[in-house]
Design a protein that fits this description.
Protein name: ABC transporter ATP-binding protein
Strand content: 25-35%
Largest sheet: 6 strands, mixed
Number of helices: 8
Distance between the termini: 32 Å
Keywords: ATP-binding, Nucleotide-binding, Transport
Strand order of the largest sheet: 6-7-8-3-9-10
GO molecular function: ATP binding; ATP hydrolysis activity
Helix content: 25-40%
Number of strands: 10
Bound molecules: adenosine-5'-diphosphate
Radius of gyration: 17 Å
Length: 226
């Protein structure tokens, strides 16, 4: 089974705008996959549908063989999402943000605390655990979103433009972190509009433009064309 399988996905927003015009895509287990495309292409909409934040108009999405329409709560256990915008409670403390997320996934309190410690340490945020999230720098907030997305140890991690607005030093350390997570078996999909980011990290790539997939190939083959 594919980690993610999308078939003929359409999204028409309430204002009549057709953001996705029949997207089909398979991402194999263990892959590091890039969804590349300009602003407005439909990348965030696609991610929104996968994690059920955006209601699709038609089409099928399954995650490790589970159709999200049949059993979203099962599919959700396998997905961790790092959205583009910071969306945590600004007054909640770093430790609590991650632990609360673990609770949403049904982890018992002790395990939730162990996992919170593990991921805050891995992302270099353990010293900040007592701080309120609004006190963190932009780069720290982004790493906090990654820790929160990993705390239930999903098999598929999806990141929406993870390094947009991130300085070069942090970008490199985030890249290395993601490579390590992938090497340990987590399938990763990221959206980006930087070819360089896709080139540095990913094996396979889909290029999306105006709601359609215009190429689905390996990074190597894509680079040869340029
Ligand atoms: P990307 O992530 O590739 O930048 P998006 O998926 O965010 O693209 O957006 C795709 C298109 O859908 C854009 O033209 C955007 O303006 C439009 N769009 C996004 N959200 C809405 C919405 N809620 N209502 C209407 N149009 C939207
Ligand atoms: P700013 O947003 O002010 O640039 P950051 O939060 O981005 O600050 O980064 C602070 C420091 O933490 C940087 O020097 C960065 O290299 C380092 N850093 C980034 N990611 C990690 C990580 N995974 N583990 C440990 N340190 C990290």
């Amino acid at each position: 089974t594919a980690a993610l399988s999308i078939s003929d996905l359409h999204k028409c927003y309430d204002n009549g705008f057709e953001a996705l015009k029949g997207i089909s895509l398979d991402v194999q287990q263990g892959d590091f996959f890039a969804v590349l495309g300009p602003n407005g292409a439909g990348k965030s909409t696609t991610i929104g549908v996968i994690c059920s934040l955006v209601k699709k108009t038609s089409g099928k999405v399954s995650v490790f063989g589970t159709d999200i329409d049949d059993n979203f709560s099962l599919a959700k256990q396998n997905i961790g999402v790092v959205p583009q915008e910071f969306n945590f409670n600004q007054f909640e403390k770093v430790f609590d943000i991650v632990k609360t997320q673990a609770g949403y996934f049904g982890l018992p309190s002790k395990l939730a605390e162990e996992r919170t410690e593990k991921y805050l340490k891995q992302l270099g945020l353990w010293d900040k655990r007592h701080q309120r999230s609004r006190m963190l720098s932009g780069g720290m907030k982004r790493r906090l979103m990654i820790a929160r997305a990993l705390v239930h140890e999903p098999r598929l991690l999806i990141l929406d433009e993870p390094t947009a607005g991130v300085d070069i030093e942090l970008r490199r350390s985030m890249w290395q972190f993601l490579r390590d997570i992938n090497a340990q078996g987590t399938t990763i999909i990221l959206t980006t509009h930087y070819l360089e980011e896709a080139e540095s990290l990913c094996r396979n790539v889909a290029i999306i433009d105006r709601g359609q997939i215009i190429q689905n190939t390996t990074i190597k083959a894509l680079l040869k064309q340029l």
